[in-house]
């Protein structure tokens, strides 16, 4: 759903949550860094509109998996099929232009820039007018800039951050910085949103807010979400399906209930103090 459909988001909510076809299919992915096997023969898929979690102990390969999906890492083996197209050698800019956005484990924002300007950077892939036109701010660039600003303001309203739109990001508390990072990813109007530990370091209230926003994004825009999260309560609450990694291997895959009762998962992960 496009951002300008936000006004009709309520009516589209039911459609947004209807889980559809497989849009991302990861087949037999193996990734090595020298002698370190980060991922070994991992296969799983992601269906349109679903919330898919990747869990596992530290070093299990979760972030590497996200980096494979958005083209930062190139696996030595395996295939990635996104919307029916094979894309093994995909680069990050290609992922972005094909509708994949992500947030990072450690916030990656421009701390000295305002919230608004940071979110504007999320529109970068959608800007058509040349840089010179933008610098000189005339004609096509001016029209485009107004359109981008409109989308960004819609995201700001949606994530309820109107009151901090002019504040430099570095001055905000951690939980709000995470929300701004989500806003920047949403500004790109992604079809597939990759969230790397969106709730890490947050207090209970901030976590509840972030959960609500993730569910709202999924519900109202129909955005497919793949997320890494350590908080088991959150994962089991908001995910449709969960894939479990351990030492770079897949040891579980299914609904939260299936995963919770999988003995291998309990032994490797849920039984630890993680
Ligand atoms: N760029 C890299 N160069 C070398 N080794 C790497 C690189 N990225 C990841 N690894 C290694 O791959 C393995 C998986 O790491 P990864 O960060 O994907 O795990 P993770 O499950 O996300 O861990 P965490 O929960 O601690 O973030 C680890 O052994 C890690 O040291």
Automatic annotation (TrEMBL):
Highest taxon above the source species: Bacteria
Q: Does the keyword Transport apply?
A: yes
Query: Which residues belong to any copy of the ABC transporter domain?
Result: 24-272
Q: Which SUPFAM superfamilies match?
A: P-loop containing nucleoside triphosphate hydrolases
Annotated Gene Ontology MF terms? ATP binding
What span is annotated as the signal peptide, if there is one? Answer: none
Q: Which SMART domains match?
A: AAA
- What UniProt keywords are attached to this protein's entry? ATP-binding, Cell membrane, Membrane, Nucleotide-binding, Transport
Identify this protein by name.
ABC transporter ATP-binding protein
What organism is listed for this UniProt entry?
A: Thauera sedimentorum
What does UniProt list as this organism's lineage? Bacteria, Pseudomonadati, Pseudomonadota, Betaproteobacteria, Rhodocyclales
């Amino acid at each position: 759903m496009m951002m300008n459909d936000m006004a009709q988001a309520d009516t589209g909510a039911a459609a947004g949550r209807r889980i559809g076809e497989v849009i991302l299919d990861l087949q037999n992915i193996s990734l090595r860094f020298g002698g370190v096997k980060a991922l070994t023969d991992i296969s799983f898929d992601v269906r349109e509109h679903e919330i898919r979690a990747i869990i596992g102990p530290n070093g299990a390969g979760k972030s590497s998996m996200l980096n494979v999906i958005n083209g930062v890492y190139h696996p030595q083996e395996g295939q990635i099929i996104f919307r029916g197209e094979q894309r093994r050698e995909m680069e990050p800019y290609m992922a972005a232009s094909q509708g994949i956005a992500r947030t990072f484990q450690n916030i990656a924002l421009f701390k000295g820039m305002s919230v608004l300007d940071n979110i504007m950077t999320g529109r970068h892939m959608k800007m058509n007018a040349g840089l010179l036109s933008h610098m000189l701010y005339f004609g096509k660039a001016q029209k485009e800039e107004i359109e981008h600003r409109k989308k960004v303001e819609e995201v700001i309203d949606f994530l309820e951050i109107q009151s901090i739109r002019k504040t430099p990001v570095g001055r905000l508390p951690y939980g709000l910085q995470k929300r701004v990072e989500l806003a920047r990813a949403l500004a790109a109007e992604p079809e597939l949103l990759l969230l790397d530990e969106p709730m890490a370091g947050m207090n209970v209230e901030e976590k509840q807010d972030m959960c609500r926003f993730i569910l709202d994004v999924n519900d109202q825009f129909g955005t497919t979400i793949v997320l890494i999260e350590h908080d088991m309560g959150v994962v089991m609450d908001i995910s449709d399906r969960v894939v479990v990694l351990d030492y770079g291997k897949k040891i579980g895959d299914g609904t939260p209930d299936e995963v919770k009762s999988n003995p291998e998962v309990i032994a490797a992960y849920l039984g630890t103090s993680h």
